[in-house]
Automatic annotation (TrEMBL):
The lineage of its organism: Eukaryota, Viridiplantae, Streptophyta, Embryophyta, Tracheophyta. Its main location: nucleus. InterPro entries: hAT-like_transposase_RNase-H, HATC_C_dom, RNaseH-like_sf, ZnF_BED_domain_contain. It comes from the Eukaryota. It comes from Coffea arabica (Arabian coffee). Residues 1-20, 575-597 are annotated as: Disordered. Residues 623-687 form the HAT C-terminal dimerisation domain. It holds the Pfam family hAT-like_RNase-H. Keywords: DNA-binding, Metal-binding, Nucleus, Zinc, Zinc-finger. It is found in: Nucleus. This is Zinc finger BED domain-containing protein RICESLEEPER 2-like.
């Protein structure tokens, strides 16, 4: 970030840095304009004919070129320099000098990995690293996600087509674009009244008219309403929608807000996530109040009959709220599977509860490490002294990272990073007299034990949240790995480990002791797993006497759900077939008004109507049976498919063997297994009315 800021400010620095005393950049610009005006005031007296100009002496020509160059100095500083290095690799690399010999190397600006420069200056190794750099890929993911309001990107083809115009200036269009700009970057409404903003606009568009903050606020509201109307029209075409909701309290204002996010698969088989409401919930925030707020939001969007599931955390008021909503939707017969899948408990929240039991075992040690990281990073001198010891011990040069106290995964990352430098901290204490809270050797041993257990939880969290496609089908295997780990450590010889794991296992049994239908059905609809996944996982998750009964429950729920989709499909087919007869009627035109109302149906129309009814009502074979008989999808079936990172939703989109099962799979895979999509709204930079994440 610091480098980019320096690069952005360097043109201004260059334009005024040659002077011995500080120069105001606007004064210099005025001086340039005066020089130009004097030059123009000479008129044609200074200019001879074309022949005279060609026959003039060299000194005059050179002097003219120098004067023109001097006159353009003020503008050249703002012009973009031509790039010498054309490879895209240099977007992510820079040249640095390493060591006392100042060997020139190429350094990744993201992870700071260094590569030797070849004699021919090839960039093959840089391009390979660019594709696999974990930090760069994470940044790209964050940039593509959490996009505010459905605006096209500036360099997209859609943008170039949308904004092509005749060249005439239209202030109404500019006001709309300004409102979109303010919303996209969350600028204050008052930014349009700033002098610099209006000066910039005037220079590029002399016809520009000032906009007040009140006008900009009204324009932003208009943009919001426009986007909301678009979304409403889109929701009319959606059959099933899953929700996530979360509550957040402001420490400063003491206000509590609720966000409701909708998830569904659109007609192009893309997972959509949109914030539907962001509302203040007054105290006491009981379950009935939460249920009323959710139902009011659904009614406003016209989707109260399309709700499939609602994902919430494990707060007691959420349980009572969903009981109220389930009763309401059940009376209207809106819920599939008799509402068995309606209430989804946030798996990430359950993991967090278990992890906190582990971190509480080393609460004081975590505080000591956090204070150490803050102390060392506070000044450049302390950091340099720490880095010097790291180099002496020939350890990898990494930056000590802070953690977010409310995010256990960031605390885990802080601890694992500090563990790599556990030999550095005592040596640093010997050099720094003010550093007297260094963790002991026993502390580091406890941290190591905790991190070895939390590693499985961290991996599970990243497997689920680190993908751009639906991941409900992945969670059963990760939960199974956690259960196996806890079972192996619950009777550990180490008292510290045994005490910690026993507390974590109690949480696991409380929330996942019973069979989880959603996780199981989603895993079965993964073509790599099918029924084999529960035959493998259930003996590891449940006692022997419960395994077969739980497998039977999942299988029965799966077939019952499929039968409901068959019924929906048949009713849709019968509705279209009833229209087929009307659609193929060809009235015979006649001069008689009586005969004009008589329609004639062809024999082919009657036959096609019969076939449509028979085929829809009497399917040849149950698609679930066919799906299970086909066997598992393996790499041998298609070498071009990445089996490990398979997008199950895309597989169902591309398959042509089934008619009903893909619709059911799409609805199931769209169900969010956690409330992370709603929780991130409370992070800085994403608080806005209608927000689009993907699609």
């Amino acid at each position: 970030m610091d480098t980019s800021n320096q690069e952005q400010s360097s043109p201004i620095n260059r334009s005024v840095g040659d002077s011995a005393s500080p120069v105001n950049i606007f004064d210099k610009a005025i001086a340039i304009n005066i020089d130009k005006e004097l030059e123009l005031s000479l008129g044609d007296e200074e200019l001879g004919s074309e022949d005279e100009a060609l026959e003039g002496d060299t000194h005059t020509t050179t002097q003219t070129v120098v004067e023109e160059a001097d006159a353009d100095d003020g503008l050249d500083a703002f012009r973009k320099k031509k790039r010498i290095k054309k490879s895209v690799a240099w977007d992510d690399f820079k040249d640095v000098e390493v060591g006392h010999q100042k060997i020139l190397m190429s350094e990744c600006i993201h992870c700071h990995a260094k590569f030797k420069k070849t004699k021919t200056s090839t960039t093959s190794s840089l391009l390979r690293h660019r594709k696999s750099c974990a930090i760069r890929l994470q940044k790209l993911k964050k940039a593509t996600q959490q996009t505010k309001i459905n605006f096209p990107s500036a360099d997209s083809a859609k943008a170039s087509q949308t904004y092509l115009h005749s060249g005439r200036f239209d202030m109404a269009v500019m006001r709309e674009a300004t409102a979109e700009w303010v919303l996209m970057h969350e600028h204050p409404f008052s930014i349009v009244e700033e002098e610099g903003f209006n000066l910039m606009q005037k220079r590029g568009m002399p016809e520009w008219q000032r906009i007040s903050r009140t006008m900009n606020k009204n324009d932003c509201t208009s943009v919001y309403e426009r986007e909301k109307t678009k979304l409403k029209n889109q929701l009319k075409k959606v059959k099933k929608i899953s929700l996530t909701t979360d509550l957040w309290k402001s420490k400063n204002q003491k206000n509590e807000y609720m966000v409701i996010t909708g998830h569904w698969i659109d007609s192009n088989w893309r997972l959509q996530k949109w914030v539907l409401n962001f509302v203040h919930v007054p105290p006491p925030r009981r379950g009935i109040q939460i249920a009323d707020a959710i139902f009011k939001c659904l009614t406003d969007w016209g989707i109260e009959s399309k709700i499939y599931t609602v994902s919430v955390d494990n707060a007691s008021n959420n349980d009572s709220a969903l009981r109220c909503l389930k009763d309401t939707f059940s009376r209207n017969k809106c819920l599939l599977a008799k509402g068995k899948l309606f209430h989804v408990r946030c798996c990430a929240h359950i993991l967090n509860l278990m992890v906190q039991d582990g971190l509480n075992q080393i609460k004081e040690i975590v505080g000591t490490i956090r204070d150490s990281v803050e102390f060392i990073n506070k000044t450049d001198g302390r950091r340099l002294q720490f880095v010097e010891i790291v180099r002496q011990l020939q350890l990898p040069e990494k930056i000590l990272i802070y953690d977010c106290k409310t995010r256990w995964n960031s605390t885990y990352e802080m601890l694992t990073c500090a563990l790599e430098f556990q030999d550095v901290f005592p040596r640093y204490r010997d050099r720094e007299p003010n550093y007297d809270f260094c963790p002991t050797l026993e502390d580091w041993e406890k941290v190591t034990k905790v991190c070895n257990i939390l590693k499985v939880f961290w991996t599970a969290t990243h497997v689920i949240s680190g993908s751009d496609y639906p991941t409900a089908n992945l969670y059963l295997n990760e939960v199974c790995r956690i259960k196996v780990l806890l079972d192996s450590k619950v009777d550990d010889e180490d008292d510290f480990v045994r005490s910690m794991v026993q507390k974590m296992k109690l949480k696991f049994d409380k929330y996942w002791g019973e069979c989880n239908l959603l996780m199981s059905i989603a895993a079965i609809l993964d073509p790599r797993c099918k029924m084999r996944v529960i035959n493998y996982c259930f003996p590891l998750l449940y006692p022997p006497h419960e395994v077969q009964s739980n497998i039977g429950k999942v299988r029965q729920a799966l077939y019952d759900l499929y039968d409901e989709y068959v019924e929906i499909h048949v009713s849709g087919q019968s509705g279209s077939s009833s229209q087929l007869l009307v659609g193929n009627d060809h009235p015979t035109k006649s001069s008689s008004s009586a005969s004009s109302s008589v329609s004639h149906v062809s024999g082919m129309s009657e036959f096609l109507t019969h076939i449509a009814t028979v085929e829809s009502v009497q399917p040849i074979k149950n698609e679930l049976d066919t799906y299970f008989e086909d066997g598992l999808l393996t790499a041998a079936d298609d070498s071009t498919v990445d089996i490990v990172n398979l997008d199950a939703l895309k597989w169902w989109k591309d398959t042509t063997k089934y008619k009903i099962l893909p619709k059911m799979a799409a609805d199931i895979l769209a169900i969010p297994i956690s409330t992370v999509a709603s929780e991130v709204i409370f992070s800085a930079g994403t608080r806005i009315g209608v927000v689009r994440y993907t699609g």
